[in-house]
Specification:
5 helices; globular; 7-stranded mixed sheet; 6-stranded antiparallel sheet; disulfide bond; alpha+beta; signal; Thaumatin
Length: about 290
């Protein structure tokens, strides 16, 4: 009976939240970072390790209590408090399902996930990363990733009660990434309605030399945007170029966003690339694939 109750409670808890499944197909360990809107906690305090071939399932949930029950921390299982439900990891024969409670307000999380590469953390979770570093910490805890980095961005329960999501290469690229809705079919009349946002090309290999990000060994680990590389008003779509009408890469002396857009048509290649880069869905969880 106890086991039955435990499973029911865990499944119920998962249903009350927004589930994100993370998959690492890169062939190397990565460290996922996350940053959310103010006052809303991020999964795993903003960071976790994801081994090659691994899958991780944190759940964003909607409760106001900011403290975990002590008993739930010490043992697998669950504890039901007045406002907090907890489900803890258990092992299957294929993968670890890590249903991670995060203390958020329901259905209004907005934020981003990214992969960090080449990290060298010590036993305390302190150390640098080649790409996506968030202050030399395993758990980013409110810090964003240093570009160039590929971003999976979400606004849950946004305008009209739908989720908005996209892939952004506005600040550059470090690894391929995909966002795939879990429970919805693509709208046959609109590929951006519950469609898959994908960037599967590895852009570092053919990145223009002037945009390359290299590590201490001289290897190319990222591809910068023109804004990041040159920091001009024109390339950054600011000042006199701060509107969709005045920020037009096709008129630049070098159309750098075209390299990103041609290889990853469903991702943002510059700040005003909204029309061909924004996806919406409703009542769905999401799979995020790196690699």
């Amino acid at each position: 009976m106890g086991i039955t109750v435990y499973l029911v409670v865990c499944l119920l808890g998962a249903a009350l939240g927004k589930q994100f499944q993370f998959h690492n197909n890169l062939g190397q360990t990565i460290w996922v970072g996350s940053l959310g809107n103010a006052g809303v906690a991020a999964p795993n305090n903003g960071g976790f390790q994801l081994n090659a071939g691994a899958e991780k399932y944190p759940v964003l949930r909607g409760y106001l209590n900011t403290r975990a029950p002590t008993a739930a921390k010490k043992a697998p299982g669950h504890r039901l408090g007045s406002v907090v439900h907890w489900c803890y990891p258990f092992l299957t024969n294929k993968r670890t399902l890590n249903l991670q409670e995060t203390v958020t307000t329901a259905d209004n999380w907005a934020g981003r996930f990214w992969a960090r590469t080449g990290c060298r953390f010590d036993g305390n979770g302190i150390g640098p990363c080649d790409t996506g570093d968030c202050g030399n910490k395993l758990q980013c805890a409110g810090a964003g990733g240093v570009p160039p980095v590929s971003l999976a961005e979400f606004t849950l329960n946004g305008y009209g009660g739908v989720d908005y999501y996209d892939l952004s290469l506005v600040d550059g690229f470090n690894v391929p990434v995909q966002v795939i809705p879990l429970t919805k079919s693509v709208d046959p009349n609109n590929k951006y309605g519950c469609g898959s946002a994908t960037c599967t090309a590895y852009l570092n290999n053919n990145c223009p030399n002037e945009l390359r990000e290299t590590n201490s060994a001289g290897a190319t680990v990222g591809c910068k945007s023109a804004c990041l590389a040159f920091n001009t008003d024109q390339y950054c779509c600011r000042g006199n170029f701060g509107t969709p009408q005045t920020c037009t890469p096709s008129t630049w002396s070098q159309n750098y966003p075209a390299y990103f857009k041609n290889n990853c048509p469903g991702a943002y290649s510059y700040a005003y690339d909204d029309v061909s880069s924004t996806y919406t869905c409703q009542d769905s969880g999401y799979k995020i694939i790196f690699g």
